[in-house]
From TrEMBL:
Swiss-Prot/TrEMBL keywords: Receptor, Transcription, Transcription regulation
Name under which the protein is recorded: NR LBD domain-containing protein
The keyword Methyltransferase is assigned to this record: no
PANTHER family: NUCLEAR HORMONE RECEPTOR
Span list, region Disordered: 1-76
Ranges annotated as biased composition (Polar residues): 21-32
Origin organism lineage: Eukaryota, Metazoa, Ecdysozoa, Nematoda, Chromadorea
Originating organism: Heterodera schachtii
UniProt cross-references to InterPro entries, sorted A to Z: NHR-like_dom_sf (IPR035500), Nucl_hrmn_rcpt_lig-bd (IPR000536), Nuclear_hormone_rcpt_NR2 (IPR050274)
Domain NR LBD: 132-330
TM region positions: none
Keyword Mitochondrion belongs to the record: no
């Protein structure tokens, strides 16, 4: 009863009689004030409790430390460590892949900014795309041999610019490791099948850009649904398009290698977009970018129809004069 009276007195401290004042003072002296206990953090992030006299309650820190040590060895902690390491390894692989693709891309951008034209003798030097691949020529590496400098950009018409785009396709194809490992016949078939789609991406990328900044964003044409692609998305999408493994006339060995490479680039694209936008928005953006590949191949079929009509009806002589013969099958129907 005495304890109850003290608690009631504590709850109602505004009583006016003397006995209540004495009871309230006694009860308040037995209970710690909010300022009597101060919680501090030690340099080791251990929580220690200090009272108003400066003494330490070691029981809590001693019981917490074994729990921390035990948590490090728990299956959940080990699983989390493994996940973190896997994410770090995937991040390193993703950006290493992007860097490898960007090296060739910056060489191409620099080349188009130098106001050069293809030498006319290169048109008749090779008659098929197979000969181009066998010769191992590189218009980026042997610039002086295959091109010459012009004074102004307007001296280079669209047909001449188209030739530059076509010859740079060789370097773009060779930037894909799996493309270099398959047989020559498979290289020719794959390049002729996907070449027009890669050509469309290249022409839209360089058509209005002279000086390129990696931080800038650019717009592809209407067949890409006017979607903004950053440089990393563009490079990985182009690599996925080149590694088009559903080509029916590739050998089984080439299909497996190209499919593996395509899945690797798709995985890098997914990981990059999740890092950039978060899980949910990254997955949505991934679906949008992959859908652009389908639109590219649809635009490629339209390009084949348009160029075939030009070559057969409206501009027969001009088309064959302005187009290097190794690239004619690629631009007309995708086959050789």
């Amino acid at each position: 009863m005495e304890l109850l009276s003290k608690q009631k007195t504590l709850i109602h401290p505004l009583a006016n009689d003397d006995s209540t004042d004495q009871s309230y003072q006694l009860a308040s002296n037995q209970m710690p004030s909010p300022m009597d206990v101060v919680e501090l953090s030690s340099p080791k992030n251990e929580r220690k409790i200090y009272d108003k006299n400066g003494t330490t309650n070691q029981s809590q820190s001693e019981t917490e430390e074994p729990a921390k040590e035990g948590a490090k060895d728990s299956p959940l902690a080990k699983s989390q460590i493994g996940i973190d390491r896997a994410i770090s390894a995937k991040t390193a692989e993703t950006f290493d892949t992007i860097n490898q693709l960007s090296c060739v891309q910056f060489r191409v951008v620099k080349f188009f900014a130098m106001n050069r034209k293809v030498r006319p003798e290169l048109f008749n030097q090779y008659t098929s795309f197979r000969e181009l691949l066998e010769s191992r020529i590189s218009i980026l590496s042997d610039m002086e041999k295959f091109t010459f400098q012009i004074e102004h950009q307007w001296e280079r018409n669209w047909d001449q610019l188209k030739c530059l785009h076509l010859f740079t396709l060789l370097d773009l194809f060779r930037s894909i490791p799996a493309f270099c490992t398959i047989d020559l016949d498979d290289q020719v078939r794959l390049a002729n099948y996907v070449g027009s789609a890669v050509y469309l991406m290249s022409t839209n990328f360089h058509s209005n850009i002279v000086k390129f900044d990696a931080e800038n964003e650019f717009k592809l044409s209407k067949f890409l649904n006017n979607s903004n692609l950053c440089l990393e998305e563009f490079l990985l999408l182009r690599a996925i398009v080149i590694c088009h493994s559903s080509v029916s006339f590739l050998s089984q060995n080439a299909k497996s290698q190209i499919q593996f490479e395509s899945e690797r680039y798709a995985s890098c694209l997914m990981h990059f977009l999740r890092l950039k936008h978060g899980n949910e928005k990254g997955i949505m953006r991934y679906a949008e970018v992959i859908h652009m590949a389908e639109q590219l191949f649809y635009a490629q079929s339209k390009l084949h129809s348009h160029l075939t009509f030009m070559a057969m009806v409206t501009h027969q002589d001009k088309f064959y004069e302005a187009t290097p013969s190794p690239f004619v099958p690629m631009l007309l129907n995708g086959y050789e």
